[in-house]
């Protein structure tokens, strides 16, 4: 069997205040797996991603990426952070944002960060994947929330990653783009490993085989086991399941929201 | 205006030509580094570095009186204190970000206080006003050479590392994930800011340098679609403000630094009003 792409062994993590965020985490992600991560806000999803990228270090236990220390192989990751991470007024073009995914290459131009012709071609290729190539010269600040999200996905793809980490990739994307994005992820997962954080259970269960359920601890479920009871258990409160039909895919999606009326 | 041109062409009166040359040279740093300062929103950091410079200048003047040596040149003191302040802020940003605001404000005040204390204990009269508000009309050939040298270093570093500096301003975490030492480029950005401040203090002084680092770049930011475009426009605006400010101060017998800054601030306000009116018209057009 192939070597695990990501492996967590008995990992505990707490921030400086000492409150444990993650406890006794054990799981592995295998090559070309498409895995979703779900869980309530503050449950440790982003912390888990940061441990994977080597931006944070476990309090105890070990994390390995491609069998090595995550910090030493992080350039093999394509990472898309959460939408609200950026200054929306920053003066930068769409192409420049995607070209950031080409930083960190070797060679003299790579050292100074100047893109080559092939980097620009790759950036345009990635923008075409998310149907944004016609807006390459537009200022990033002039785009809608959904368009910015797609540019961020293109930037993650421009890294030519072996592992793609997506933190809520469809949070601001319309249903039509979401279904195209779903098809893109399925296509990409034939060659690379993908882990994405999502609150949209319908979106998740339609394309992935296993789900990492994170709420201080991690439980790995096959998607067939994602029943209402399991979801309620993950989010630790009563949930409403809102079913919405997407005409473009002719598939029904189930979105999970906390049920504030319930005790 | 005609008297200004007559004086500019008079071979015996050189101070105005030096002032204009200094204005043009400093505009490159105002525009290029100012664009990073505005885009990365580190104008408070730049303010703290600028005020720490007075500490370095005061220390140099004090030491020069105690044991005269070329080592205690006020420019060297300014450069040393600016770089030291940049390093302290950079380390605090990385190691204890939650304390960054306190440290920045403390450095701001302590830098000034140290400078004034050293100046008070130095024999002879030292006027801190020339350091606080600058005097572009007192600039000589050695200042021009220093400005050209430091400006050249700043421009070269920005040209070489433009894309990495843009990335560190836009998304530092992503740069780190690409295997690029983002902290190093953040320090480089602070160092460039420190160098620019030392260079620009002769033009507008410690107190007003922040205005010239931010106003032209903020105006350019309203129009540019990329950081390179913002830099180009900001350099152009700075040249207009320094030249126009010098001409105004000469014609109206006003101090040059404050006149340059007021000219820049009035232009920024004018642009904001124009943009506001345009936005209103566009909204009315859409509604109708």
Structure, explained:
The complex is a heterodimer of chains A (263) and B (288). Chain A has 263 residues and is an alpha/beta fold. Chain A has 8 helices and 11 strands. Chain A has helices at residues 45-53, 94-99, 108-112, 117-129, 145-158, 175-188, 201-207, 228-235; strands at residues 6-14, 20-29, 34-38, 60-65, 77-80, 163-167, 193-197, 210-215, 217-222, 239-246, 251-258. Chain A is globular, with a radius of gyration of 19 Å. Chain B is mainly alpha-helical and 288 residues long. Chain B starts with a helix and ends with a helix. In chain B, 84% of the residues lie in helices and 0% in strands.
Distinctive features:
heterodimer, A: 263 residues, alpha/beta, six-stranded mixed β-sheet, three-stranded antiparallel β-sheet, 8 helices, 11 strands, disordered C terminus, B: 288 residues, mainly alpha, 11 helices, 84% helix, globular
């Amino acid at each position: 069997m192939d070597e695990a792409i990501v492996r967590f062994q008995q990992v505990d993590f707490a921030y400086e205040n000492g409150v444990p965020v993650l406890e006794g985490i054990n799981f592995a992600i295998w090559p070309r797996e498409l895995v979703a991560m779900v869980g309530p806000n503050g449950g440790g999803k982003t912390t888990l991603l940061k441990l994977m990228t080597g931006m944070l270090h476990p309090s105890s236990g070990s994390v390995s990426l491609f069998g090595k220390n995550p910090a030493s192989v992080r350039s093999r990751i394509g990472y898309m952070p959460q939408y609200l991470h950026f200054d929306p007024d920053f003066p930068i073009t769409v192409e420049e944002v995607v070209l950031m995914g080409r930083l960190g290459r070797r060679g003299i131009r790579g050292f100074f960060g100047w893109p080559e012709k092939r980097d620009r071609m790759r950036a345009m290729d990635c923008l075409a994947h998310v149907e944004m190539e016609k807006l390459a010269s537009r200022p990033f600040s002039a785009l809608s929330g959904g368009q910015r999200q797609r540019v961020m996905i293109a930037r993650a793809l421009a890294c030519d990653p072996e592992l793609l980490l997506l933190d809520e990739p469809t949070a601001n994307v319309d249903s039509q783009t979401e279904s195209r994005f779903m098809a893109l992820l399925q296509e990409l997962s034939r060659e690379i490993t993908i882990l994405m954080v999502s609150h949209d259970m319908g979106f998740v269960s339609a394309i992935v085989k296993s789900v990492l359920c994170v709420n201080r601890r991690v439980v790995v479920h096959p998607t067939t086991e994602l029943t209402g009871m399991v979801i309620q258990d993950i989010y630790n409160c009563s949930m409403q399941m809102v079913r919405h039909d997407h005409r473009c895919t002719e598939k029904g999606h189930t979105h999970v929201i906390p049920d504030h009326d319930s005790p | 205006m005609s008297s200004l041109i007559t004086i500019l062409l008079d071979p015996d009166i050189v101070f105005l030509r030096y002032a204009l040359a200094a204005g043009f040279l400093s505009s490159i740093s105002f525009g290029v580094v100012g664009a990073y300062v505005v885009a990365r929103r580190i104008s408070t950091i730049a303010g703290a570095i600028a005020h720490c410079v007075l500490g370095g200048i005061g220390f140099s003047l004090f030491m020069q009186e105690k044991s005269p040596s070329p080592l205690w040149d006020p420019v060297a003191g300014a450069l040393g204190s600016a770089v030291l302040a940049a390093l302290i802020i950079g380390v605090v940003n990385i190691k204890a970000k939650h304390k960054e605001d306190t440290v920045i404000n403390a450095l701001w005040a302590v830098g000034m206080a140290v400078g004034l204390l050293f100046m008070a204990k130095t024999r002879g009269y030292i006027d801190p006003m020339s350091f606080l508000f600058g005097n572009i009309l007192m600039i000589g050939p050695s200042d021009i050479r220093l400005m050209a040298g430091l400006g050249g270093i700043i421009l070269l570093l920005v040209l070489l590392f433009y894309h990495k500096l843009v990335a560190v301003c836009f998304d530092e975490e992503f740069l780190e994930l690409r295997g690029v030492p983002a902290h190093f480029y953040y320090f480089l950005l602070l160092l460039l800011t420190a160098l620019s401040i030392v260079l620009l203090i002769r033009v507008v002084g410690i107190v007003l340098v922040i205005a010239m680092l931010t106003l032209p770049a903020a105006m350019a930011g309203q129009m540019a679609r990329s950081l390179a475009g913002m830099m180009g426009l900001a350099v152009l605006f700075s040249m207009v403000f320094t030249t126009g400010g010098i001409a105004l101060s000469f014609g109206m017998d006003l101090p040059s630094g404050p006149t340059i800054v007021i000219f820049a601030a009035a232009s920024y306000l004018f642009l904001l009003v124009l943009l506001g009116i345009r936005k209103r018209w566009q909204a009315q057009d859409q509604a109708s």
